[in-house]
Amino acid sequence: MGAFLGERTRMYQGEFDFGIPEPPWRPKRPERVFYGLFLQQKDYSRFADCQSQLCGQCEITGSRLLYHRFHVSLQHVGDYKRLPEKIIFAAARSGRRIAMSEFDVTFRHFRSFPGRPATRGRPAKHPFVLLADDGPVCELSRKLGAEMSREGLKASDGFVPHLTLAYDQKLIPQQPIGPISFVAREFVLVHSLRGLKKYVFPDCWPLSAM
Fold first, then answer.
1. Which 8-state DSSP code applies to residue 208?
2. Distances 90 to 56, 76, 115, 150, 193 between C-alpha atoms, Å
3. What pLDDT, on a 0 to 100 scale, did the predictor assign at position 17?
4. Lowest mean pLDDT among 17-26, 109-118, 142-151, 172-181
5. How far apart are CA 125 and CA 113, in angstroms?
6. Helix-helix angle 136-150:85-96, to 10 degrees
7. H or E element that contains 171
8. What is the third-level CATH fold of 2-19+31-206?
9. pTM above 0.85?
10. Whole-number Å distance between alpha carbons of 112 and 131
11. What pLDDT is attached to residue 210?
12. Three-state SS letters, 154-166
């Protein structure tokens, strides 16, 4: 497990966070923690092609995510000015109690989510996403939420499984696509250093094969 985490950390640390140029400021709470499902390398080209096709079709000209950043967020743990060690400890305890088999995550629709509205000097910024089917991905989110609550962490009950492709000023209505999927074989605890274009992975857990 240690070697695996070392490889994953080397892969992601120092790379562009979501593929967006570094902003001239950091948020007031720059340290974010969440659980996510990431693509495997063999899935990159298919999802990159899908991103290119849909962004072209919808004339999305905003910031596109880098394909190795594609992921489905499962639960948001929190945003912090300085991340307390006890949060990572509690989140890791929550994650290690989950037992599930690997499963397919399938996307059949795309749309925009309402995001940051336009303000003086700053354009609107709406996530342009693939929407995943309900199923095991939602079950995993619910299980994580229950374990988080046991550890005193606040879980979200409004989970909408999605994979963000880009951010743009446009709001695109929901539309169908031919199904595209990947196999979730592990889920990861992510420490995002917002504004520094950096992910750290404190822990990860395999989803057992059938």
1. B
2. 42, 13, 29, 9, 19
3. 42
4. 17-26
5. 10
6. 130
7. none
8. Cyclic Phosphodiesterase; Chain: A, (3.90.1140)
9. no
10. 10
11. 53
12. CCCCCCCCEEEEE
Listing DSSP states for 105-148 in one string gives EEEEEEEE---BPPBTTB--BEEEEEEEPSSHHHHHHHHHHHHH
CA 16: distance to chain centroid? 14
- Going by C-alpha positions, the residue among 18, 19, 23 that lies closest to residue 36 is 18
Per-residue confidence at 11, pLDDT binned at 50, 70, 90? Answer: very low
Which residue bears the tokens 């196999």?
A: 183
- Give per-residue pLDDT as tens, 146-170: 999 999 999 988 889 999 999 999 9
Residue 188: Cβ within 10 Å count: 21
* DSSP β-bridge partners for residue 186: 206
Residues whose CB is less than 8 angstroms from the CB of residue 123 and which lie 6 or more positions away in sequence, other chains included: 169
Rounded mean pLDDT of 77-83? 88
Residue 189 CA, distance from chain mean position: 10
Beta strands in 18-97 (DSSP E): 31-38, 63-64, 71-80
Task: Indicate if the pLDDT at residue 204 is higher than 70.
Answer: yes
Q: Average pLDDT, whole number, for the chain?
A: 85
